[in-house]
Fold:
Amino acid sequence: AASSVSGKTYVIGTDTTFAPFEFRDAGGELTGIDMDIIRGIAASQGFAVEIKSLGFNAALQALSSNQVDGVIAGMSITDARKEIYDFSAPYFESGVQIAVAKATTDITGYADLKGQTVTAKTGSEGETFAKSIADQYGFTVKSLDQSATMYEFVKSGNAVAVFDDYPVLAYGISQNNGLKTVTDKEPGGSYGFAVNKGQNPELLAAFNAGLADMKSSGEYQAILDKYLKDPT
Ligand code: GLN
Structure:
């Protein structure tokens, strides 16, 4: 199966800024864990990729309508998504967490969100989770399309908290983005590479084969270390 990808070019959708998984480096080039993984697998499996930085929800829509062949975007493997997409083997364990502005002292748990507005990304696991507890804790969810916009929304006081994936919050906080976490992460989905249901099975097989090679050669761990060990 892996040989049938040979020489082909696949269009891959991704998020805009979801560091350390995808973001632009100082020179404006798309970089990050997801980018290194998909480019490394493409190189080892003999196919080419054209990466489209679409935004998370837009990438999922593009996949549903076959405008892209695959999505790698820190995308969690969920049961609901498995109905409409086919996923690779998991490659990173994640989970949702909340963050608040650094100066905020009166929010230490979900109960403190009562009567407040929070933000989460349109179409994300964070949004689904926030909405699932919104009634119970009495808060409102304002969905936005990009992590960077959500963080600004919190820092400007338009929302008191953001629900996002913990490794992305942790990375941003390590770069002094003005936020802090106040709760433990929720156990969550693992990230997978997705194709549209029943489409591009050879691409999915090649991804899984390439990922397995990358793990056994140590290249996968080297990619994680590059972005997570000493983020600068
Ligand atoms: N992991 C989350 C999800 O799949 C968020 C992904 C993202 O924002 N790029 O919903």
